[in-house]
Inverse folding.
C-alpha cells in the first residue's frame, strides 16, 4: 500500500523542516534466506518526532541497527546530517543518542556515576561533562536518587536513568526504542513529556513503540513498515484517511428488528453491521451525517435503544488494517 509521503511537522518547526537529518535509500538487509529489509526508504527531517511502527519481525530493529552502522547491509545508502554513515563515522555518532528497549546501565555504579560514565564517552572536558550530567539528572527528575544503585530503583526510575545516560551528551538525533515498556502511568507521562521537551530544545527524535496512543500523542509524522518495506507514511490524520473505516457507530440495544438492520445496512456510507445481542456496531466509510442517519432510522421504527455513541478511527485501527491482525513472532 502506497500513500503520498509528506514532510508535515509540528507547529513552529517549519524553518527546520527543509533539513534532512536521516535519509535511508533502497536499503536491503538479508539474514541468509530471510529478507529483513526489502529496499527500505525513509527520510526524517530536522525537528521531527518521527514514529517508526511495525509488527514484530517487520524490520524496525534491523533498520535502527543499520542506521547506527552496527550491521552490514547488502545494498542501499544511509546518510545522517548529510553525510554517509559508516562504522567509523565518529563525528556523526557523537551527535546521536540511543535509548534501547532493554535498560543498559552498570549495577555497580550509582545513578550519577552511570550518567557520568556514558557522558564521558563523548565529552572529555570535566567541567563541561559535569554541566551535562547535572542537566541530565535534573531533566529526568533523578535529583533525589543520584547516590542510589540501579537495583534499588523502581522500573520507572531505571527507565529514566537509561534515558539520562543516552541524552546526557546533548545529541542532535535521539533514537528511542520502546522507552515506556512496563512502567507505571506516572513514569510513562514523565518520559513522554521529557521527549517532547527534548524536541522543543532542538533534538530530532526517532520513536518506536507498540503503544499507538503514545505515538499518536507525540509524533509529528509516522512510518509503518512491514516485511522490511515502508508501506505507509504521513501524519496521524493522513494515515487515518487511507483506511476504509472512517467512523464507527455503537448502539446499545437488546433487540434489533430485522427491518431496522436492513435499512441501516442500506445507508450509502455503511459497509458493515455487527450485532451481538446487546450491541449494534455500524461501520461507515465516508458520509457526513452517519450518526444522524442511524438515529433517524431508529426513530422511524421506534426501536428502543440505550447508549449511542460514535468513534473515529485511531492509529491502532490504521495499523491493524494495514499490517493485518495475525500474531507475529518477536524480532
Amino acid at each position: 500500500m502506497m500513500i503520498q509521503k509528506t514532510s508535515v511537522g509540528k507547529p513552529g518547526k517549519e524553518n527546520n523542516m527543509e533539513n534532512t537529518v536521516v535519509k535511508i535509500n533502497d536499503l536491503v538487509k538479508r539474514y541468509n534466506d530471510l529478507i529483513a529489509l526489502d529496499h527500505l526508504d525513509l527520510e526524517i527531517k530536522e525537528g521531527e518526532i518521527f514514529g517508526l511502527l511495525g509488527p514484530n519481525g517487520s524490520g524496525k530493529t534491523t533498520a535502527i541497527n543499520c542506521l547506527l552502522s552496527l550491521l552490514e547491509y547488502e545494498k542501499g545508502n544511509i546518510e545522517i546530517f548529510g553525510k554517509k554513515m559508516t562504522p567509523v563515522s565518529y563525528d556523526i555518532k557523537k551527535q546521536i543518542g540511543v535509548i534501547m528497549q532493554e535498560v543498559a546501565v552498570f549495577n555497580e555504579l550509582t545513578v550519577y556515576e552511570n550518567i557520568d560514565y556514558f557522558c564521558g564517552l563523548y565529552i572529555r572536558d570535566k567541567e563541561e561533562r559535569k554541566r551535562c550530567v547535572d542537566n541530565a539528572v535534573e531533566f529526568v527528575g533523578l535529583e533525589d536518587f543520584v547516590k542510589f544503585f540501579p537495583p534499588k530503583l523502581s522500573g520507572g526510575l531505571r527507565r529514566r536513568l537509561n534515558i539520562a545516560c543516552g541524552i546526557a551528551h546533548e545529541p542532535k538525533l535521539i533514537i528511542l526504542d520502546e522507552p515506556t515498556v512496563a512502567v507505571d502511568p506516572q513514569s510513562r507521562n514523565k518520559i513522554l513529556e521529557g521527549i517532547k521537551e527534548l524536541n522543543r530544545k532542538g533534538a530530532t527524535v526517532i520513536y518506536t513503540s507498540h503503544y499507538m496512543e503514545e505515538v499518536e500523542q507525540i509524533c509529528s509524522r509516522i512510518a509503518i513498515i512491514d516485511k522490511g518495506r515502508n508501506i505507509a507514511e504521513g501524519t496521524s490524520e493522513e494515515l487515518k484517511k487511507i483506511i476504509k473505516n472512517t467512523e464507527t457507530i455503537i448502539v446499545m440495544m437488546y433487540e434489533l428488528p430485522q427491518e431496522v438492520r436492513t435499512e441501516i445496512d442500506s445507508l450509502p456510507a455503511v459497509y458493515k453491521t455487527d450485532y451481538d445481542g446487546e450491541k449494534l456496531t455500524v461501520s461507515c466509510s465516508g458520509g457526513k451525517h452517519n450518526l444522524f442517519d442511524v438515529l433517524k432510522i431508529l426513530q422511524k421504527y421506534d426501536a428502543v435503544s440505550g447508549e449511542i455513541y460514535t468513534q473515529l478511527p485511531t492509529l491502532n485501527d490504521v495499523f491493524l488494517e494495514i499490517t493485518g491482525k495475525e500474531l507475529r513472532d518477536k524480532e
Q: What stands out?
A: DSSP finds eleven helices and 14 strands in the chain. The first strand starts at residue 20 and ends at 31.
